[in-house]
Specification:
This protein has 463 residues and is an alpha+beta fold. The protein has helices spanning 6-12, 23-40, 83-95, 120-124, 149-156, 173-187, 191-203, 243-246, 252-264, 270-276, 339-351, 359-376, 387-392, 395-405; strands spanning 14-15, 44-51, 54-65, 68-69, 76-77, 209-210, 223-224, 232-233, 248-250, 295-299, 302-311, 314-321, 326-332, 413-423, 426-435, 438-446, 454-461.
């Protein structure tokens, strides 16, 4: 299968135009991208770097498919980086007097649980209480078939709320599906048509398109791997699953044009940009660190506007530093490992001036280690898995886990990474697995409680 080495990546790199980075900076950027792609055996990447408010470096590395060299004009799936565009569409419609951020959802989409309490602002800020329909980092069974926004709403947005609107922050793709439906009702046209007219065409974002259409010989192929097994092309999901929550594909350079507009406060009213970047507070006054479609944080006085994205076989990372007038967009065609975020973080260093566990967490950590050891041995107690996890763990998947993990021997450490979080009705907990010469990352989702069934159990390379 596809296994990229540093040499192959360097040979396959496709430069855009002469760039105003210094020769040393260019060399460092290429070194970072090549090394991080090789570490994850990621097939390819596109990057775009903005400095002083201008696109100064755009480059593609590796192979977008077995027959297609990566180019910096290819549309990669940006997934949840699409959310900021959906949110801005809502803000534009508010400018036009067609809706208000404080409208209740029931005014636009009937039948949603407690829709008379949820506002559009809460949809966009992940504070609505609607259960996330895709918290997993793999394709669950229903995604093999096409869907529609209404079908997603009917299955997930009519369940009891996870919490009362405004009480908590919990990432919800479902909320953005509802927001996209509101855009279409208020504007009278498809979401993508609205975005093309008001954002993509004015900014010259010529590659922006629906990810469901970015499939075939002319487009990048998505890849994944089971644990440390071979890199394989993913099975493309049915149409319609990401919609307003993450339906866009575009080049890294086109995403950078949007980032520049954000820095310049151009194209759209400055007030809209500011509103999108204003973090939302919960009912108790706690700051969520999230605005409308973007995370916003302060790093020792340095404002950062950022988001990542995950589609089937693709990851993206987009970060804007408004005060420094810099931005970094990284797109990869693999959803195994974290090359996109690592690259973005490490490139920033080049271009910028430079808790106790409770009983349940302890029990889940012990069970995670036991399941990990089972998979190393090629076994799995399926009674511990949910329906979707059983769907994911095919015989081939288990075989890949065993063949890649067993040779590593016993881990020297198996430790939680961060605190548990709630999303989509599941408890999310990461782990860091250490060996003498490497580390691995484990992402687990559980049903709540010490004996909750496992929804996700994914191993990826660490550093």
């Amino acid at each position: 299968m596809l296994k990229l080495t540093a040499a192959l990546l360097a040979l396959a790199a496709v430069p855009a135009i002469a760039q105003p980075l210094t020769a040393a900076e260019q060399a460092k950027v290429d070194e970072i991208v090549t090394r991080d792609l090789a570490a994850d055996e990621a097939p390819s990447a596109e990057i775009a770097i903005v400095r002083d408010g201008k696109l100064v470096y755009a480059k593609a590395y590796g192979k977008a498919s077995p027959t297609l060299a990566a180019r910096n004009d290819l549309p990669y799936q940006i997934a949840s980086n699409s959310k900021q565009f959906t949110a801005m569409a809502i803000l534009l419609l508010e400018d036009q007097g067609k809706l208000s951020l404080d409208d209740h959802v029931s005014k636009w989409v009937p039948g949603i649980t407690e829709g008379d309490k949820i506002t559009i602002r809460q949809l966009l800020s992940h504070t609505s209480g609607l259960e996330d329909y895709w918290p997993q980092d793999y394709s669950f069974a229903a995604m093999a078939h096409p869907t529609t926004p209404q079908a997603i709403v009917d299955r997930w947005a009519k369940k009891p709320l996870d919490f009362q609107p405004g009480d908590q922050w919990q990432y919800s793709n479902t909320g953005y599906v509802v927001a996209g439906m509101i855009v279409e009702k208020a504007s009278g046209e498809p979401l993508l048509t609205f975005l093309k007219q008001h954002i993509f065409k004015p900014l010259g974002m010529t590659t922006a398109m629906n990810q469901d259409d970015a499939v075939g010989p002319a487009y990048p192929v998505g890849y994944g791997r089971n644990a440390l097994g071979p890199v394989r092309p993913v099975t493309v999901p049915g149409r319609g699953w990401l919609y307003a929550a993450g339906e866009l594909s575009m080049s890294a350079s086109d995403l950078a044009k949007w980032d520049i507009a954000r820095m310049d406060r151009s194209l759209l009213p400055a007030e809209d940009w500011a509103t999108q970047e204003t973090t939302i507070k919960l009912n108790n006054g706690k700051d969520t660190g999230y605005g409308l479609g973007v995370f916003v944080r302060d790093n020792d006085g340095q404002k950062v506007v950022t988001h990542t994205g995950e589609a089937v076989g693709f990851l993206s990372a987009n970060t804007v530093y408004p005060k420094e007038r810099a931005a970094i967009a990284v797109l990869t065609n693999t959803w195994s490992g974290g090359a996109s975020s690592r690259i973005a973080r490490e490139l920033a260093a080049v271009i910028l001036p430079q808790a106790p566990q409770d009983a349940v967490v302890t029990a889940q950590a012990a069970r995670a280690r036991a399941v990990y050891d089972e998979l190393r041995a090629g076994k799995l107690d399926r009674s511990q898995l949910t329906v979707d996890a059983n769907y994911y763990f095919t015989p081939q998947t288990i075989a890949d886990f065993q063949s890649s993990l067993a040779p590593l021997g016993q881990p020297t450490a198996f430790e939680p990474a961060g605190d548990p979080q709630l999303r989509g009705g599941f408890v999310i907990q990461g782990y860091r697995i250490s060996y003498p010469n490497r580390t691995l990352n484990l992402s687990t989702f559980y049903e709540p409680g010490a004996n909750g069934r496992i929804e996700q159990f994914l191993v990826t390379p660490g550093r």
